[in-house]
Write a structure and sequence with these properties.
The protein is α+β, with helices and mostly antiparallel strands and about 160 residues long. It has a single domain, classed as START domain (Alpha-D-Glucose-1,6-Bisphosphate, Chain A, domain 4, 2-Layer Sandwich), CATH 3.30.530.20. Helix content is about 30%, strand content about 35%. The protein has five helices and seven strands; from the N terminus they run H-E-H-H-E-E-E-E-E-E-H-H. Strands 1-7-6-5-4-3-2 form a seven-stranded antiparallel sheet. A hairpin with a 2-residue loop joins strand 6 and strand 7. The chain is elongated.
Length: about 160
Amino acid sequence: MKALKFLLYAVLGLLALWLLLGLFARKEYHIERSTEIDAPITVVHEQISFFKNFKHWSPWNVYDPNMKTSVEGTDGQPGAIYHWTGNDKVGTGQQTLKAVTPNRVDMDVTFSDWGTSPVYFTLEEKGKKTNVTWAMEMHVPFPWNAFAMLTDVNAFVGKDYETA
């Protein structure tokens, strides 16, 4: 009986510690990666601003080649929504195209378990090449932010950005 009581107190103590950490842990993370692509800015812009092209470069397609996707609205235009449903590695969510300019594409990414985070791509012409910056203002909600304290969120998400 004493062992069971000790186990109960230990579990309750760990739960209380997790909740306490979640109260003080940061919830906002900025993830950003840049690369130079050997293609004109117009080609790169089309790949980024049209959801139909994601299958050619999105790093998450590797995690689930059977992922189900659909596009609602006019692809490439603000208001278009890209829906996905996949295995445990890619989950379920959607991306909403918010704004498209010649040098920037803005989206909101909604993960069904995490909430919504703004994402943007900036493009800079470098002769016949294009410098692309992919960034996310990631929000990790309470109480999951306590787990984020135990990992390098930038490295965890950034590794996917680096493979695109």
